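MODEL INPUT / OUTPUT PAIR
PAIR INDEX: 1
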Amino acid sequence: MSIFKLSWKYLIDKPLNTGLNVLLLALGLSIITVLLLVEEQFESKMNRDATGIDMVIGAKGSPLQLVLSSVYHVDFPTGNIPLKEAQKVSRNRLIKNAIPMALGDNYEGYRIVGSNHDYLSLYQAELSAGSAWDKPFEVVLGSKVAKAKGFQVGDTFIGAHGIAAASHHHDQQPFQVVGILAPANNVLDQLIVTSVESVWYAHDDEIGPEKLDQEVNKIGFPEADQDRELTTVLIAYRNPMAAIQLPRMINSRTSLQAASPTFEITRLFELLGIGVTVIKGLALLIIFIAGLGIFIALYNSLKERKYDLAVMRAIGAGKSQLFLLILLEGLILTFLGAIGGLMLGHFFLFFIVITNEQGLVSGLNAVTFIGKEWWIIVYALIVGIVASIIPAWNAYKGDIAGQLSK
């Protein structure tokens, strides 16, 4: 029988001890796996969703809240801003492009975003069916919205006021699906996009038939025959000088607020970093306890098997083979723990994603494998070597004659 098979036989001879050690190590490694997967994908997703957006203009309030609600659509808007004032600011020579947005409505929790065709171009969106909107109350669905609700081109639905799913419905005019976006793995996947005019008219008490028949603005700011409001404007700078001058000018000289997505998300990561460090510390503590458990199990097992090992020596097994036997037991335990930890980690992330289909984590992929996960296996094997090295050395230095004489 090979050394590997013999090590395996010893382990399965005590299934409860073996299973407990493997499970404890797997739990610690699963926490680290989830953190690695979220950290790797979350940062990539945040940067991807903010591509091409240098600044966000909105109502006074929390700049982080403004960025989260306007760019990532995961928080409540800070309020509305006058259309005319937003247009005036957007004419600044330092601004290359300005995309107006009207927010505040939803359909069963999926946000309805009023904008123009530039918003689709910002993410280089492609349509898998239909076309972009031309008239009021025509909408384009993100791929996840269409899949979750089973909508096809030509279907209609009633929007609701507010961000939460249980809100007052705007039942005077239904939205019609005219296009469905191809999966893009960005924020568009979970949005319902339409014109700014559609959001305006949804809140009007009466809508004239002439408004429903006219074409909406596909680029730039919409035209308004009365005082209208926007929620936010997404800005792209013309040159680096704009990053220095524009935010200060807007925040000090207007009633609007300017916020930088890059700066606010960096600050958010710094705030979350403390919590992540604490969780990592907890995971390492669990792994340490698991390693200690493996050490104790192997050490006690060695005491029980001293006579068996002495007999093996007597029939021809070398010291190095006994050393390798104990070492393999520790490596097998930690390898199984590493595989179990990786599987548990991916399962936990999958559970988090399916229970948060409309949040920041909705775009994360639980079945992807990142390079850093190889280090989890390496780390687990190191724990196995450290935990088994003393028992293996004791087996190597064992007294054959003394054990057999007993």
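PAIR INDEX: 2
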Amino acid sequence: YPNTVNHFLKLNKVSADLHVINGSVEIAPNIGLADAICDIVSSGSTLFKNGLKEIETLLKSEAVLAVSPKISNESKTLLDTLQFRIQAVLKGQNSKYVLLNAPNAKLNTIISLLPGMKSPTVLPLAKEGWSSVHSVINGNEFWEVIDALKAAGAQGILVCPIEKMVV
């Protein structure tokens, strides 16, 4: 990372002393350790919280998993396990667990709006004529599905994040 910063500074003819700091580098300007910082950020919210603003992007990057075509069977098994776990986390991040109350008279309509993993879970409530419906909604369709559920008579809709999703 310091090499990337030094290369950027040299390319842009900027003379600066580079000091490597580990941890919360965003506080360095506020406590007099630096006039500016170069940091790896995803959202920039920590910069904003410390009164800083982004003025230049040095590099856009992403993590990737690459494999050699000459991988051994033992390593391939380990790689498959790692890939499965990564996919479970990513799938969970883009999904929401939804619980709602539905009048039994409108249950079929409400269930038809919920894709679920196989199908929604429906449990009777203590209040006669009502059921609790549990399902998973894709994050990309979330608001459209929620609006349709409300219009169909769903009430008390609770939405929970999903940490991991094994399918």
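PAIR 2 NOTE: Strands lie at 95-103, 121-124, 130-138, 155-161.
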